[in-house]
TrEMBL record:
<feature type="binding site">
    <location>
        <position position="181"/>
    </location>
    <ligand>
        <name>S-adenosyl-L-methionine</name>
    </ligand>
</feature>
<keyword id="KW-0819">tRNA processing</keyword>
<dbReference type="InterPro" id="IPR003358">
    <property type="entry name" value="tRNA_(Gua-N-7)_MeTrfase_Trmb"/>
</dbReference>
<dbReference type="InterPro" id="IPR029063">
    <property type="entry name" value="SAM-dependent_MTases_sf"/>
</dbReference>
<comment type="pathway">
    <text>tRNA modification; N(7)-methylguanine-tRNA biosynthesis.</text>
</comment>
<keyword id="KW-0489">Methyltransferase</keyword>
<feature type="binding site">
    <location>
        <begin position="281"/>
        <end position="284"/>
    </location>
    <ligand>
        <name>substrate</name>
    </ligand>
</feature>
<feature type="region of interest" description="Disordered">
    <location>
        <begin position="29"/>
        <end position="63"/>
    </location>
</feature>
<dbReference type="InterPro" id="IPR055361">
    <property type="entry name" value="tRNA_methyltr_TrmB_bact"/>
</dbReference>
<feature type="binding site">
    <location>
        <position position="207"/>
    </location>
    <ligand>
        <name>substrate</name>
    </ligand>
</feature>
<feature type="binding site">
    <location>
        <position position="154"/>
    </location>
    <ligand>
        <name>S-adenosyl-L-methionine</name>
    </ligand>
</feature>
<protein>
    <recommendedName>
        <fullName>tRNA (guanine-N(7)-)-methyltransferase</fullName>
        <ecNumber>2.1.1.33</ecNumber>
    </recommendedName>
</protein>
<comment type="function">
    <text>Catalyzes the formation of N(7)-methylguanine at position 46 (m7G46) in tRNA.</text>
</comment>
<feature type="compositionally biased region" description="Polar residues">
    <location>
        <begin position="49"/>
        <end position="63"/>
    </location>
</feature>
<feature type="binding site">
    <location>
        <position position="203"/>
    </location>
    <ligand>
        <name>S-adenosyl-L-methionine</name>
    </ligand>
</feature>
<feature type="binding site">
    <location>
        <position position="129"/>
    </location>
    <ligand>
        <name>S-adenosyl-L-methionine</name>
    </ligand>
</feature>
<feature type="binding site">
    <location>
        <position position="239"/>
    </location>
    <ligand>
        <name>substrate</name>
    </ligand>
</feature>
Length: 302
């Protein structure tokens, strides 16, 4: 029996699902190269380099265009309430570093290379908060410390608008807001630029294959190290125990930082007792209601 007759008999005697599977088997598949295998590995590094263009340690202000950044955030669609919608209008535009709503929505951080110049008192202490949520705690901190400048960066328009609206209600002049990727922004800021960096209740990325997205990693903390002044503070808080101990392990491994609370008898950095200056956040309240402990960590750049 010829091959064409065998094919005809197969199609006549088998259901459609078997026919489709047969077609897939007969179709040539693309060859998997070592590059595609490496790209699929769950434990890939923060940045995937082209080996021939690996940047030297002196290349601290920029990364090679051959690098592919792994984002620490996922921009989800969120409901924009009335306050947030109002906060994105022209009456509150002076709180935003970006010039218009299009740039905010596009998370365009082009040209933002100096945060101190955003304020009339550029020499004042500068706090940079990453992922401020709806902005209630950031606004409260800015209100409580009028002689300190605050810059918050967030990716969700609901939080950006709500924060601007709350700041406008209080008439704050020491707070600016940016829409965008914090790591990308810090890479274009001057060295020794920030006094305090705050990271309150970041996404814990609980699945093991997502650990590479956690903000606190050795690679990302080197970016933080560069922009912090000597003696500058990194302060983080989380309600996920695994992430809390992960943070301590990462920070203890970096010689550029020391734990403000010192180390225990086993040489492991201590957690910080909850500070009074950190306002209660929505995520912290939710964690407490669900029975989780709250962990604060604080490290100083040496």
């Amino acid at each position: 029996m010829g091959f064409s007759l065998i094919i005809a008999e197969f199609y006549h005697n088998h259901p459609l699902s078997h026919q489709l599977r047969f077609l897939q088997m007969m179709t040539p598949q693309p060859t998997q190269t070592s590059q595609t295998v490496d790209a699929a590995k769950p434990d890939a590094p923060l940045l995937s380099p082209n080996p021939s263009t690996t940047p030297q340690p002196s290349d601290e202000n920029s990364l090679s265009p051959h690098y592919r950044a792994i984002q620490t955030f996922m921009k989800r669609k969120t409901h924009v309430g009335k306050k947030a919608e109002a906060g994105l209008q022209s009456d509150f535009a002076h709180f935003f570093v970006q010039p218009n709503l299009d740039a905010i929505q596009a998370m365009d951080i082009g040209g933002i290379t100096n945060l101190r110049e955003l304020f009339s008192n550029p020499d004042a202490p500068l706090t940079f908060e990453i992922g401020f949520g709806m902005g209630t705690s950031l606004v409260e901190m800015a209100k409580n410390e009028p002689t300190r400048n605050f810059v918050g960066i967030e990716v969700h328009e609901a939080g950006l608008g709500n924060c601007a609206f709350l700041a406008g209600e209080l008439g704050l002049n020491n707070l600016k807001l940016i829409s965008g990727d914090a790591i990308a922004l810090m890479q274009q800021l001057p060295a020794a630029h920030i006094d305090t960096l705050q990271l309150y209740f970041p996404d814990p990325w609980q699945k093991k294959r997502h650990y590479k997205r956690r903000f606190v990693s050795a690679d990302r903390m080197k970016v933080v190290e560069r922009v912090l002044k000597k003696g500058g503070i990194f302060h983080a808080a989380t309600d996920w125990e695994h992430y809390a101990h992960w943070m301590i392990e990462v920070m203890d491994s970096l010689t550029a930082f020391e734990n403000v609370e010192g180390k225990n008898s086993e040489g492991i950095g201590n957690f910080l007792p909850r500070p009074d200056f950190r306002p209660l956040t929505k995520f912290e309240k939710r964690g407490l209601e669900e029975g989780r402990a709250i962990y604060d960590i604080m490290y100083r750049k040496v």
